[in-house]
Amino acid sequence: MRRVCFAIVIGIAILTVFSLAQQAPSSGPYPTTGPYKVLKTAKVGGDGGFDYVYADPDGRKLYIPRKGPGRVTVFDLDSLQPAGEIADTNANGAAVDPKSGHGFASSKPVAMWDSKTLKPIKTIDVEGGPDGILFDPFNQRVWVFSHRAPHATVIDAKEGTVAGTLDLGGAPEQAVTDGAGHMYVDIEDQGNVAAIDTRALKVTGHYSLEGKGDTPAGLAFDVKNHVLFVACRQPAPGVMVMMNSEDGKIISTLPLMGGSDGAVFNPATMEAFSSAGNATLSIIKEKSPTSFEAEQVVTTMTQGKTLTLDPKTNHVLIIAAEYGPPPPPSAEPPKDGQKGGRGGRGGRGPMLPGSFSVLVVGK
Known about the structure:
Elements: H1 2-23, E1 37-43, E2 54-56, E3 61-66, E4 71-76, E5 82-87, E6 94-97, E7 102-105, E8 110-114, E9 120-124, E10 130-136, E11 141-146, E12 152-156, E13 161-166, E14 172-177, E15 182-187, E16 192-197, E17 202-208, E18 214-222, E19 227-234, E20 239-244, E21 250-255, E22 260-266, E23 271-276, E24 278-288, E25 291-302, E26 306-310, E27 315-320, E28 357-362
Antiparallel strand pairs: 1-28, 2-3, 3-4, 4-5, 6-7, 7-8, 8-9, 10-11, 11-12, 12-13, 14-15, 15-16, 16-17, 18-19, 19-20, 20-21, 22-23, 23-24, 24-25, 26-27, 27-28
């Protein structure tokens, strides 16, 4: 009997260690201590799912689209206190044109509002399934991205009218611009980066990742030195591919500590940041246009997948929430491509009430 009990205890201990190992990924080449830490965790609450987060550094507002019911929640970027919302808007992302003072959401139809008063201006009919969004100051246009055709819908930010659409050759994720007529978009299902002439609304090329990475989901840009940081989910747990934006040549690669769902570059500190749902923020230092190092990994919060940069404070903001245990597997057959009935999609449980949070990472 003692042997049986001892075996059970040992078995439980092994399972516990295995579980902890899964929850706390190795830091790999990244130091766990360094200049960055979570400075603040603001539990702003609110029901419903979430995807992208967007900081408007000029208007000092933080935009977070939420699901169920669909609305864009708005916070003061400095205090993280509620500043209002754009109601009846089922969106994934948001963007603001500081010149016209117009805000936009990647909803269907696209919502347009006054960024000072947050009052709705109009809605704009678009096709496809709006997902990502980017404001391009070059010709004052907002780009709305979709995983299905049309992959990009281009909107005049001043007038709120559709200027055109574009086929990107695959499902776009994150986009960046140099503000001088060139845009780059990582194409998740094709494993490449599309280069775009924003004046002509034309794809000028696709930069291959050459097997160095796959499933790119985050993209950051050092405009001055023409370096693209392509954050890939594969090979697991992830890899950052540094690429020359002018010719697509790969400069270097570094591992990431989780499957990226967003990346940003801060030219003031010469650092690229990649956030992942396994509670890691990988920070890469650009020592020169051809030399990069794994600077630090910061522990954030589970499901903290997307991020935004406030260039005024040099803070990175990440959104996340706490979740309960996953529901038991359903005996029903999988539907709509799910991998295992109820709870089969990643095994995530329900969001805990009031747990939705904004994390501020800085020095």
